[in-house]
Amino acid sequence: MELNMNHLTKKFGDFTAVDHLDLTMTQGVYGLLGVNGAGKTTLMRMLCTLLEPTEGTITCNGKDILKMGGDYRKLLGYLPQDFGFYPEFTVQDYLLYIAALKGIRPAVARRRVKELISRVGLANAAKKKMKKLSGGMKRRAGIAQAMLNNPKILILDEPTAGLDPNERIRFRNLISELSEDRLVLLSTHIVSDVEYIANEICLMKDGRFVHQGTSEQLISSMTDGVWKCTASKEQAAFLMKKYKVSNMKTGAHGIELRMISRERPLPDAVREEATLEDLFLYYFGEKAGEDHAAI
Ligand SMILES: Nc1ncnc2c1ncn2[C@@H]1O[C@H](COP(=O)(O)OP(=O)(O)OP(=O)(O)O)[C@@H](O)[C@H]1O
């Protein structure tokens, strides 16, 4: 299985949401990591044939997905960011209903629904109404519906949005498991969602991939260093304006800062090993002195 994007572009009027992307994906987990508005959903909707590219193509094993029509959709499972569910349906009935919409024969659907409910960890909630599920359980039901046709390509748009840390970990494990024999593409703006499970991470900004590679490759692409130091209140205020600060904590001897800088920011600053979180800040973060600073 090979999914290819060639100069993939989407414009809305004069605005370019996805800008000449090239990527080849095979089996495994691919993570699209970017801030809000980077173009992740637009890209995923094109991969699901819900939006037509303005320019460029997507091919699956060499064939244009728009020309493949139903043959491509048979290979595809999609969990949109806001997936529609029926609040009064039980989990089981909801999945059976979606299976019917997907044209899966009733006998096959019953077997598949049972199997998937257990696989996503909802066996004890099969008879629960969808409206009674927690956010994480709803997302798991969402994954189950995307998996009904046993897709070779699974596309998950922000599957961990709103989940607590426990649910997030369960979800990561599930995604990792599902990727054993398929291609999984997931989007997120949370570094830890993809840090450990993605074979390849694409950092997306303003419709472009600013960098792509394994977590280690991305980290080693960082030319600035990560530094740790303890500063006074006044120094800390100055450093925050000048550098991208990834963490600060008030300690017994002053304010402990972790920051990104080309040069040693203070004489006693110590060099630290960079993490993917530092890298995210390096590409997407703002300094506290900049307009709209997030920190
Ligand atoms: N139908 C549309 N018409 C006009 N602009 C659009 C449309 N859909 C998306 N955009 C714009 O394209 C850009 C990318 O949006 P997109 O939803 O793909 O980003 P995203 O990375 O998925 O962000 P988020 O995490 O907030 O969902 C945004 O600036 C958005 O406002």
From TrEMBL:
This protein's UniProt keywords: ATP-binding, Nucleotide-binding, Transport
Question: In which domain of life is the source organism classified?
Answer: Bacteria
The entry lists its GO molecular-function terms as: ATP binding
InterPro entries from the xrefs?
A: AAA+_ATPase, ABC_transporter-like_ATP-bd, ABC_transporter-like_CS
Keyword ATP-binding in annotation? yes
Indicate the segments forming the ABC transporter domain, all copies: 3-231
Tell me the Pfam families matching this sequence. Answer: ABC_tran (PF00005)
User: Its family?
Assistant: Belongs to the ABC transporter superfamily.
Q: What is this protein called?
A: ABC transporter ATP-binding protein
Q: What is the source species? A: Faecalicatena faecalis
